[in-house]
Design brief:
Elements lengths: L11 E6 L3 E7 L2 H10 L5 E5 L8 E6 L9 E11 L14 E4 L6 E4 L26 E2 L3 E4 L4 E12 L2 E9 L1
Antiparallel strand pairs: 1-5, 2-4, 3-4, 3-5, 6-7, 8-9, 9-10, 10-11
Length: 174
């Protein structure tokens, strides 16, 4: 997918976002800092240090959050903070998935946790997994129920019968 970040036209000089840095790099100017943010899939803002290092380069912090975490926006006269429009700030991804801003026609994409069994744009679709059985407190021949939530959360699709025992072959989330 192609990425398109729209950075705010007005930076916040004298501020720096802390506690959300993916990595810090050295660049020759702010334009290259912004470009590196485009290239980093989880970057949605950056801090650019206006004071150059001995090498003549400037520090550039690539961040995975914007100022929705305003408690982490701290005064630092050496820096300029600039954020992009961030569709991930509302946490649209479910089940511990990673949200990446400005991908696809929905303005974000979710990276589902490997091995979790979740899928779909928001990682909220079905989970074919035997892990759910540990949550079950009632099972019938056609479903596994969570009585405390008063709902069926797994449908038994197929079973194998061997000498009076039943083995579940496949499950589907409800």
């Amino acid at each position: 997918s192609c990425r398109s970040l729209l950075f705010t036209t007005f930076p916040k000089p004298g501020f720096r976002l802390e506690n959300h840095t993916l990595r810090t790099i050295e660049v020759v100017n702010e334009d290259l800092c912004r470009f590196q943010c485009y290239l980093e899939p989880n970057c949605v803002s950056y801090n650019f240090c206006e004071i150059s290092q001995e090498s003549g380069k400037h520090k550039c912090d690539l961040n995975n959050a914007t100022i929705e975490h305003d408690e982490d926006l701290v005064k630092n006269e050496s820096y300029i903070y600039r954020g992009a429009e961030n569709a991930c700030k509302k946490n649209p991804c479910k089940n511990n998935a990673t949200c990446q801003a400005r991908f696809t026609d929905r303005d974000y994409q979710c990276l589902c946790v490997d091995g979790s069994g979740f899928k779909g744009h928001d990682c909220d679709e079905g989970k074919e997994s035997y892990n759910f059985i540990s949550r079950a407190n009632h099972m019938t021949s056609s479903a596994i129920w969570d009585k405390s939530a008063r709902k069926k959360f797994l449908k038994v699709i197929g079973q194998t019968y061997l000498k009076g025992t039943s083995t579940i072959q496949s499950l589907a989330s409800q």
